[in-house]
Specification:
Elements: E1 2-7, H1 8-12, E2 18-20, H2 32-50, E3 58-67, E4 77-82, H3 84-101, H4 106-117, E5 130-131, H5 134-145, H6 155-171, H7 180-189, E6 191-197, H8 204-212, H9 220-230, H10 236-250, H11 253-266, H12 277-287, H13 292-313, H14 321-332, H15 339-350, H16 356-375, H17 383-388, H18 390-393, H19 400-408, H20 418-427, H21 436-448, H22 458-461, E7 464-467, H23 475-482, H24 491-498, E8 505-508, H25 511-514, H26 519-527, H27 532-538, H28 545-562, H29 575-587, E9 595-596, H30 597-604, H31 608-617, E10 627-628, H32 649-655, H33 674-680, E11 694-695, H34 706-715, H35 720-735, E12 739-742, E13 751-754, E14 768-771, E15 779-782, H36 784-787, H37 796-806, E16 824-826, H38 833-851
Parallel strand pairs: 2-4, 2-5, 3-6, 9-10
Antiparallel strand pairs: 1-6, 3-4, 7-8, 11-12, 12-13, 13-14, 14-15, 15-16
Helix pairs in contact: 2-7, 3-4, 3-6, 3-7, 5-6, 9-12, 10-13, 11-13, 13-15, 14-16, 15-16, 16-19, 20-28, 26-27, 30-31, 30-33, 35-38
Length: 856
């Protein structure tokens, strides 16, 4: 590659040429925020020109170019690998200037056109010096070619053009005129760019990825789209026109990202997170050595699945009435967690594996699973994992709907049975659990179960939940309730127990009128209701504990009939998922690491013998040969299970970076424990992060601060020399400009060596977390796993250098295989003066790399 500083004018003017934005690039996305900043920079440069100051220019950023496959000697064409937003914006600004001066100075308008915007003697798309991605081409062409039509209105390109037209009118204000041609000169000759030009043999995809795969500039869907179309050099135009543009038009970018993630889940990857979508799908394609045909087939499948996915987002698009009703209720429930299961059902129906009636029956199980758990107050925090696992766990030996019933009925899924449902409807405070729309939907479904001939339009009725016995009862209510009080119970306590239960709740459009009035007044209002449940309440002579319990029992009967019960005796639903998880974690073993049968079994909650039997009998499990005995030896019963594998196991292990001791055992330092394996596939961090780390204020007299607690716990387990070494480390870190944050843990606290703004979670960075030993000696945890997502340490080479520097400390030996994890070393190593100095130098290096991140 070649890199040089240049000006916009030098880059685009001269002989005929074209800058092509590839299909894989996202559409134009600058908003007024970026446009206002650019305009401010342009005006500043225009003022400098007016004052005759020539030295100062403004650096705008980089533009990365690569030869286009359509390039020829007489008409150079360049792919814009990075920088299309800048080039498009500057071109639109010049088009706005051209149109601003067209009537008064037509020759200057023509000059701007020919110098910067068009290739005068070229036809068709070659007429334009900049050719945006297809989704933006017609709009951009309309603004460059002119005159504008109605079709050119709307969209980001039009908004940017209109912004510059508006600003040019403001700049022409007679009270403070600004010469439009100085503005043109500022754009073309005072905004500097670094043009990076790749050679034909350079890996353009790697260049693009290194510039954009930070999680900041592009979404996961953007990154994956870019990757896909970079892999379609000959089929890209056809695939883009036929499949991608319709797909992009039917879903928002966020929805498209969700569909891409769902596609991975449907393919059996039940642990992938949405934020890891790009890396996971790229890994699948790279591992399978995907061809252009494979990439095209994937995009075609996305295109097909998009129509099914839209039915989840817009249930009215579902043609079958029964399925549509279920989708509407699940949409009202805001049950996005169920999307993997719902997509599986719609996909299986599309492929003929089940019909609409069976799809509706399976959806009734999903609805019941959610509703019963909500009524019975089962925490929803594991629903994501439950439904994400459905595609990989659904039994294959029974019909789909029956399989869904069986899977959700597993003992570890906690789908409440009829007796538990009845008990909770009778006694649990329904009004205080779940989301408001979920509580409302439960009551709506119960009302519908009466099948009253006079249907209620629930969408238009604006119904709210009413407490029949009010939350703030008057004397009449308390006297009536007092008739039902058991010996030794206060009437206020009975009211508190019953007020929020389902038996005391209903739906009404006259909540404010019902208010806290006595029951006789409410009876009259409820009698005139169109809802059958309200008429039944009105027909009751009084409303006390007995009536509330009786209505609860009636509603429980209806709930049991409405929402199917789980099957009994199904057992646990982990086996298939666990083996899939085992395969996933083995595939993720880093270079230079191994694990044991016992470690893998502990991670899965299985037994070492079962793990060994599974690996021995399952062909194609990645890295199965890197599972060794606890002594680090190849099991005597190990056999290759595939013709594609074979050879000497120890040679393969050595090639994977595993060292062997003089006794022939794999180096125990490189062994990954069950906890290490869990980190490889962790969805969330279970330990405290910088979000909970706080600067420790001075406590009031007698109050123990977090820092005090940390050192108290450290001193209880480590020597005074270690404690003083840690205090000295903290002092050196603060001298370097860092600060010490302490976690909120009461049983075991922690200390973070932080850089960045205190009290601004997510903005800081830290290389080490220190923990007291809890009986085993304090440790310093090196957070490689976190650093991999934080600039500039997304660069693996920087993390590797950090590892190398830490390994210079005597007593520290962190293997390369733990570069993606959170290894630790004993704090006692800091008792040595030389180790403290080496660590201080390493921390200074770390701070320096972090401070340079914005100037690289």
């Amino acid at each position: 590659m070649q890199a040089k500083e240049t000006l916009f004018a030098d880059l685009v003017q001269g002989r005929a040429q074209q800058f092509q934005v590839p299909l894989y690039q996202r559409t134009y996305s600058w908003t007024e925020k970026q446009l206002r900043q650019l305009w401010s920079d342009i005006l500043e440069q225009a003022e400098l020109i007016e004052r005759g100051e020539k030295a100062n220019t403004h650096f705008l950023g980089s533009v990365v170019l690569a030869p286009s496959p359509q390039n020829d000697a007489t008409f150079p064409r360049w792919l814009v690998v990075d920088g299309q937003q800048r080039l498009t914006t500057l071109s639109l600004a010049l088009a706005a200037i051209r149109d601003h001066v067209r009537d008064a100075q037509p020759r200057d308008a023509e000059r701007i056109d020919e110098q910067y915007l068009i290739n005068k003697w070229q036809n068709g798309s070659d007429h334009f010096r900049l050719l945006p991605t297809q989704a933006d081409r017609s709009q951009f062409a309309a603004h460059v070619r002119g005159p504008l039509t109605e079709q050119a209105a709307g969209g980001g390109v039009a908004a940017a053009y209109c912004f510059f037209r508006r600003k040019l009118v403001e700049a022409a204000d007679p009270a403070a005129p600004q010469d439009v041609f100085r503005i043109e000169q500022a754009i073309t000759s005072r905004l500097t760019l670094v043009a990076v030009t790749a050679e034909r043999g350079d890996n353009v995809h790697r260049i693009f990825e290194s510039l954009n795969n930070t999680g900041l500039k592009l979404s996961q869907a953007d990154l994956l789209r870019n990757y896909l179309f970079m892999k379609l050099p000959t089929r890209g135009e056809h695939v883009y026109e036929a499949y991608w543009l319709p797909l992009q038009g039917s879903l928002s970018n966020e929805e498209l990202e969700q569909l891409m993630w769902l596609q991975l889940v449907l393919d059996g990857d039940d642990r992938v997170r949405r934020q890891d979508l790009y890396a996971a799908q790229q890994q699948r394609f790279e591992h399978g050595k995907a061809t252009e045909e494979d990439i095209e087939a994937y995009i075609m499948e996305l295109h097909r699945s998009a129509a099914l996915f839209r039915r989840l987002l817009h249930p009215e698009e579902e043609p079958d009435t029964s399925v549509r009703a279920h989708l509407r209720r699940l949409d009202a429930w805001q049950a996005q967690v169920t999307y993997p299961a719902l997509m599986l059902l719609l996909d299986r129906r599309e492929r003929g594996a089940l019909d609409s009636s069976d799809a509706a029956r399976a959806m009734s199980y999903i609805e019941s699973f959610l509703v019963r758990r909500m009524i019975c107050r089962v925490p929803p925090n594991n629903l994501n994992r439950i439904f994400q696992a459905v595609p990989g766990q659904l039994p294959l030996d029974v019909p789909v709907a029956d399989g869904m019933h069986q899977l959700l009925s597993a003992d570890n899924r906690f789908w409440p049975a009829d007796d538990k449902l009845r008990e909770k409807i009778r006694k649990a405070p329904f009004y205080q659990f779940g989301r408001p729309q979920q509580r409302k939907m439960v009551l709506q479904r119960l009302e519908e179960s009466y099948e009253h001939p006079e249907l209620v339009d629930f969408a238009a009725a604006q119904l709210t939940i009413e407490h029949v016995m009010p939350q703030a009862p008057g004397d009449e209510w308390l006297r009536m309730l007092g008739e039902d009080v058991a010996d030794g119970e206060r009437v206020e306590d009975l009211h508190s127990r019953l007020q929020h239960t389902l038996g005391n709740l209903t739906l009404t459009a006259v909540n404010s009128e019902l208010s806290n009035h006595p029951f006789e007044r409410k009876q009259g209002l409820l009698q005139g209701s169109h809802l059958e449940m309200n008429r039944r309440i009105a027909a009751t002579e009084r409303w006390g504990a007995k009536e509330i319990f009786a209505r609860a029992d009636e509603l429980a009967d209806r709930a049991v009939a409405l929402w199917p019960a789980p099957l009994r005796g199904v057992g646990r639903a982990e086996r298939s998922r666990d083996w899939q998880l085992a395969h996933q974690v083995l595939a993720a073993l880093p270079h230079g690491s191994w694990t044991s049968y016992g470690d893998l079994a502990a991670f899965l909650g299985s037994g070492a013998q079962a793990v060994g039997n599974h690996l021995a009998g399952t062909p194609g499990v990645a890295n199965a040969y890197r599972v060794l005995t606890s002594e680090g030896r190849v099991s005597e019963g190990f056999r290759w299970t595939s013709d594609d594998e074979g050879g000497d196991v120890r040679s393969r292990l050595t090639a994977d970076g595993i060292r062997f001791t003089v006794t022939g055992s794999a180096d125990p330092v490189q062994r990954l424990t069950a906890d290490d394996l869990a980190l490889l596939v962790a969805e969330d961090d279970d330990r405290e992060s910088e979000d909970t780390a706080q600067r420790t204020p001075g406590g009031s007299q007698g109050e123990e601060t977090r820092a005090d607690r940390f050192f108290r716990q450290l001193a209880a387990d480590d020597s005074p020399e270690t404690v003083e070494a840690v205090r000295a480390l903290f002092a050196r870190w603060e001298k370097l400009g860092g600060w010490i944050g302490h976690g909120a843990g009461q049983v075991m606290t922690s200390a973070f060596l932080m850089l960045g703004e205190a009290g601004a979670p997510g903005r800081g960075i830290w290389p080490l977390t220190l923990y007291p030993g809890g009986g085993r000696g304090g440790t310093a945890e090196v957070v490689f796993q976190y650093l991999a997502a934080r600039e500039p340490f997304t660069d693996r080479a920087l993390r590797a250098e950090l590892l190398s520097r830490l390994n210079e400390l005597e007593g520290v030996d962190i293997p390369e295989g733990k570069l993606e994890l959170r290894p630790n070393f004993r704090l006692s190593v800091l008792e040595k003066d030389r180790n403290r100095e080496l660590l201080a130098e390493t921390l200074a290096w770390f701070r320096g790399r972090w401070e340079e991140r914005g100037t690289a």
